[in-house]
Design goal:
Blueprint: E1 5-10, H1 39-48, E2 56-61, H2 65-78, E3 86-90, H3 96-111, E4 119-124, E5 127-129, H4 132-147, E6 151-158, E7 166-171, H5 174-179, E8 184-191, H6 196-200, E9 206-216, H7 217-227, H8 229-235, H9 249-252, H10 260-265, E10 271-275, E11 280-282, H11 286-292, E12 301-303, E13 306-309, E14 315-318, E15 323-326, E16 331-335, E17 340-344, H12 351-360, E18 371-374, E19 377-385, E20 388-395, E21 399-400, E22 403-405, E23 409-417, E24 420-424, E25 427-431, E26 436-439, E27 445-449, E28 455-463, E29 472-475
Helix pairs in contact: 1-2, 7-8
Length: 481
């Protein structure tokens, strides 16, 4: 373990190729690959073998804060830590360049007491590295290069070109080899090569970029100032806090929506790569899930409530319903509570085209499951009909919904578990399990849980518009008003 090393886990991706499980409001890093841990938690556990866990910072969009907090709490209990793990929250989506920038600034200003330019490792939350010991050795090699002022990428040699990944072309460099013999100078970085021209440029020996980087903070900000000056200008003097949100909406919305790969890595001349001679998987598609999963003698992977007869080389992923299959071959069936995907195994990259169609149709199936996570907890849609909608709302301890009103619907709340503190108009009302209250159209209201256990409320809406657009927020501790 490297005591002086810091790590940023980037946990804000959407994962459109893993629809229908992954959605805008519940991305791939939040669901479990096995019975024990989510993809995000597996990433954290991998890194905790290399970095002191108090030096691990997670960046996430504010919409996912509640869910990630709960996952971090599980890990905190695993390591018997008294203090909460650090979570930086972005008020809106702005991709990895702004997210990484605020995290580096936070580490430099608030956590670092060892040197003026701390060494920082950044990792996506949607990858698996199976050989932790070998990965630890590679990280040790990267530290000396980062100290010498290089941005270190970690990559895997390949002959395949896929427009969903980034690639690097390399050559030997004696100055770099003197620091680390296995390292190579990056002469060209091409992110997600689309079109024949870019793909032709990748002929010869190439490496697929893992998205894992290492650098010292001074180098990062120097390169950011040179290649992404607008992000540097709007971050360098800002105060970043371990709060919700960690930076004001006014400051963050000025930043360009751009990945670190396009903003910096494609432009910088200061990048080296270390080959990843360990098993690395980007969990970005159902094919990737299938490849890493334990299969039966017929090459099938089944999870959830599945009954199968005579299928081969197939995957069935059930989250709620019984799925019965017969004689499938090279087929994927993915079931969630409100959508089912059936795909040929060789065609799962095309799922992103379904995602685009859903976007064009303005379908909620792209954005949310029936269960939707919010900064204060989550809700599950139970029934939706003509003029009515019912939800089960779960509010975390010491959490509060925004002070709000609705122009098109009334609400009836029934307390199922816990004690609710409700703002109704200008008065506060306390209700116990079994008690209920009515909220009229355009009546100011809020719901808060002062208890130590979760608060559960059955909500019945009635009106002509029954969606999240009919919320006028007047006050909000999560910066959404």
């Amino acid at each position: 373990m490297v005591a002086s090393l810091y790590c940023i886990i980037l946990a804000g991706g959407s994962g459109s190729r893993l629809w229908p499980v992954s959605r805008e409001m519940f991305p791939k890093q939040m669901f479990k690959l096995d019975e024990e841990y989510t993809l995000f938690q597996k990433t954290f556990l991998n890194i905790a073998n290399l970095v002191d866990d108090k030096n691990i910072i997670t960046t996430i969009n504010i919409k996912y804060a509640s869910a990630i907090k709960e996952q971090l709490k599980v890990l905190q209990e695993k390591f018997c830590r008294k203090n909460e793990y650090k979570l930086l929250t972005e008020p809106i989506f702005r991709n990895t360049a702004p997210a990484m920038s605020i995290a580096v600034k936070y580490i430099k200003d608030k956590l670092n007491y060892i040197s003026e330019s701390p060494i920082i490792l950044t990792v996506p939350s949607d990858q698996l590295i199976t050989n932790r010991e070998q990965f630890s050795i590679l990280i040790e090699k990267g530290i000396n290069l980062a100290k010498a002022g290089y941005i270190v990428s970690f990559s895997t040699e390949t002959t395949d070109i896929n427009e969903n990944f980034g690639y690097v072309k390399t050559r030997r460099n004696s100055q770099i080899s003197d620091i680390e013999p296995s390292a190579l100078k990056v002469i060209k970085f091409i992110e997600k090569p689309k079109g024949k021209e870019k793909q032709d440029d990748l002929k010869g020996k190439i490496y697929v970029n893992s998205g894992i980087y290492m650098f010292n903070a001074e180098t990062f900000f120097s390169e950011l100032k040179k290649h992404a000056p607008e992000i540097h200008k709007n971050i360098i003097n800002k105060n970043i806090e371990n709060t919700i949100p960690s930076i004001s909406l006014n400051d963050y919305e000025k930043l360009k929506d751009i990945s670190i790969d396009y903003a910096l890595m494609e432009k910088s001349k200061n990048i080296v790569t270390i080959p990843l001679n360990t098993e690395w998987k980007d969990i970005g598609s159902w094919n990737a899930i299938y490849e890493i999963s334990q299969k039966d003698k017929n090459g099938n992977y089944f999870t959830g409530n599945v009954i199968d007869i005579d299928s081969k080389s197939s995957m069935v992923y059930s989250t709620s319903k019984l799925v019965a299959t017969l004689g499938l071959k090279d087929t994927f069936v993915i079931e969630t509570e409100d959508a089912i995907l059936v795909s040929n195994k060789s065609d799962t990259n095309g799922i992103k085209n379904i995602y685009k169609k859903l976007n064009g149709a303005n379908s909620s199936k792209k954005e949310i499951h029936k269960t939707v996570y919010r900064p204060w907890g989550y809700y599950t849609v139970l029934e939706h009909g003509n003029g009515f909608l019912t939800k089960c709302i779960t509010v975390n301890p010491n959490a509060k919904l925004s002070v709000q009103l609705h122009h098109h619907r009334s609400e009836h709340w029934i307390i199922l578990e816990g004690e609710a503190t409700i703002l109704k108009g200008k008065e506060f009302v306390k209700l116990q399990a079994g008690e209920s209250i009515d909220i009229a159209i355009e009546e100011i209201h809020s719901l808060q849980n002062f208890g130590t256990e979760q608060l559960k409320v059955l909500e019945i809406q009635q009106g002509d518009i029954l969606d999240e657009n009919d919320i006028e927020r007047l006050e909000d501790i999560y910066g959404r008003a």
